[in-house]
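thought: fold this chain, then report.
action: predict
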Amino acid sequence: MYGLKNLSLSLLFLSSVALAGKTTTIGFETKEESRGETVPLDECTDVFKEDVYTVFTSQFCRVFVGPQCTGKQTRLNPGEHNSKWPIPFINSVYCEPAGLLA
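observation:
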C-alpha cells in the first residue's frame, strides 16, 4: 500500500505540472486504492469517493459531502491531508489557483 501511494503521488505531481494552468490533480487514498483525478480549476467537479483516508491537493481546494458542491465543505491548503478515521463521502470538489482563496 505504501509503495502504491508513493507511485500515485509521483504520477500526481507529473500530471499537475503537465496540465498547469487550467486543471489540477487531486489524489484520494481509500483502503482499496490510491487514485489521482484531474479536475478543472474554477469549476465544481463531482468525484464520488467513499471512505477516504488521505487527500492530496496541489492547489487550494474545497471538498464537499454533497453533489455539485453542496452540503458541508472543508477547505484544504496544498499538501497531503490524512485522517485516522475514513471520511465517509467526498462527492464533489472545487479548486482554484494558489492565492485566490486566501
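thought: worth noting. Helices lie at 2-18.
final: C-alpha cells above.
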